[in-house]
Structure to design on (264 residues):
């Protein structure tokens, strides 16, 4: 009998069960009204029998309340939420972003940058970086500025703006060639920004400088506001055969950092 109880406890504490508890609480958080078991089952693509067992356990701890076959958050959940808010206040967002930059640099083997745009401006500024361990690597200093139009970070940031804001930027733009292949015509830049909007990332090859490839995706906070652009900067000679891989890495890490900041 004791062995059977141990097996049950191990199953209840499985990673899948923990994930389901988190998703269950998130679903209840997202609803302004009590939710039925059937509705939760549909939203989470999880059998009602599995959710019912989790809900009973959560109800015993006061995290949820069930009434008339409907479920809502209980006082325990709000207490946990307050504790998490306080913990997040202590753990600065910059630390979470920096951790993600280190992960991305290790995964890609390249220099990783954080760029922020100037409100209603023409350029972005690099505010943090994690350098590649390669002897040949992209070098930049914190505080360096680059134009939006010629950089992956700049195009990723522009892609989050309204179409009207992008048009306003392009109309006042006096683009200069920073490398032989720098894109400077408005139609081409408009298409590149729209492609970044559709793909969820921007990628430039030999645009801001000859021999440099950039790949960028934006980071968002809990309010959905853009925090900045996460950028992988690599020598083109090393990046040219792995453009798709770099894009996948930066998109995944930007999403993970955004989630750690509370973006859903």
């Amino acid at each position: 009998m004791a062995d059977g109880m141990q097996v049950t406890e191990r199953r209840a504490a499985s990673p899948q069960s923990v994930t389901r508890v988190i998703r269950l609480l998130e679903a209840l958080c997202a609803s302004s009204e009590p939710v039925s078991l059937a509705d939760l089952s549909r939203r989470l693509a999880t059998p009602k029998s599995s959710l019912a067992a989790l809900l009973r356990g959560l109800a015993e701890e006061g995290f949820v309340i069930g009434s008339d076959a409907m479920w809502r958050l209980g006082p325990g959940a709000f207490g946990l939420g307050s504790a998490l808010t306080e913990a997040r206040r202590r753990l600065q967002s910059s630390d979470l972003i920096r951790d993600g930059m280190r992960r991305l640099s290790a995964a890609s083997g390249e220099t990783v940058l954080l760029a922020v745009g100037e409100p209603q401006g023409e350029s972005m500024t690099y505010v943090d970086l994690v350098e590649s361990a390669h002897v040949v690597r992209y070098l930049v200093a914190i505080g360096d500025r680059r134009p939006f139009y010629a950089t992956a970070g700049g195009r990723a940031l522009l892609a989050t703006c309204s179409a009207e804001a992008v048009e306003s930027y392009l109309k006042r733009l006096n683009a200069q060639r920073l490398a032989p292949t720098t894109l400077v015509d408005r139609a081409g830049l408009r298409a590149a920004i729209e492609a970044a909007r559709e793909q969820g990332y921007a990628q430039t090859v030999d645009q801001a400088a000859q021999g440099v490839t950039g790949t960028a995706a934006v980071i968002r906070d809990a309010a959905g506001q853009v925090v900045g652009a996460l950028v992988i900067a690599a020598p083109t000679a090393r990046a040219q055969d792995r453009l798709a891989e770099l894009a996948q890495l930066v998109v995944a890490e930007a999403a993970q950092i955004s989630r750690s900041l509370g973006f859903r």
